[in-house]
């Protein structure tokens, strides 16, 4: 079948295929043809409409965009308000001057309360626990070998061990 109505009259020919599902890759049964001239498009529509292609009659109509009346209306989204987030968005950023003033006020307050801060002397004078452990670890232990030998001797005194006469 000749789709050309004039020299190189059609600019674009788009077949539509199924993208997913059990029919993926198979044609959907319609196509779009874009012509350079409207006269060529009119000739194609009049001559091809109702023609047999294989065993089926084809219907040739003008493609038209979907009307706004038929488009699905987007649902209005419910407004979610989280108080913690709302405060951060609406509050104005504090300028540098007020930040500096706040820091200076806090420093003055800390100077006045200097007497209240006392370091626990008992913890600062003691050696750290890890050093105590390492000191004890380096110390030679003579009791370990004694315990080991006594455990070996204890094995022979068990009721299930047999002594040879």
From TrEMBL:
Domain named RRM: residues: 25-65
Source domain of life: Eukaryota
SUPFAM superfamilies, A to Z: RNA-binding domain, RBD (SSF54928)
Region Disordered, residue ranges: 134-165
Keyword RNA-binding (UniProt): yes
Composition-biased stretches (Basic residues): 154-165
Alphabetized UniProt keyword annotations: RNA-binding
MF-aspect GO terms: RNA binding
Name under which the protein is recorded: Probable RNA-binding protein 18 isoform X2
Organism: Sitophilus oryzae
């Amino acid at each position: 079948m000749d789709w050309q109505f004039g020299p190189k009259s059609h600019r674009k020919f788009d077949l539509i295929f199924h993208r997913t599902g059990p029919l993926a890759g198979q044609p959907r049964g319609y196509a779009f043809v874009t012509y350079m001239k409207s006269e060529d498009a009119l000739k194609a529509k009049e001559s091809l409409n109702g023609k047999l292609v294989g065993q089926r009659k084809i219907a040739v109509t003008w493609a038209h965009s979907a009307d706004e009346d038929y488009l699905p209306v987007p649902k209005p989204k419910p407004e979610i308000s989280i108080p913690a987030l709302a405060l951060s968005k609406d509050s104005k950023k504090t300028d540098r001057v007020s930040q500096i003033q706040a820091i200076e006020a806090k420093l003055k307050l800390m100077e006045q309360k200097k007497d209240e801060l006392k370091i626990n002397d008992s913890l600062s004078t003691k050696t750290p626990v890890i050093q105590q452990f390492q000191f004890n670890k380096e110390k030679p232990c003579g009791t370990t070998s004694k315990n080991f030998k006594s455990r070996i001797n204890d094995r022979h005194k068990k009721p299930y061990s047999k002594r040879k006469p």
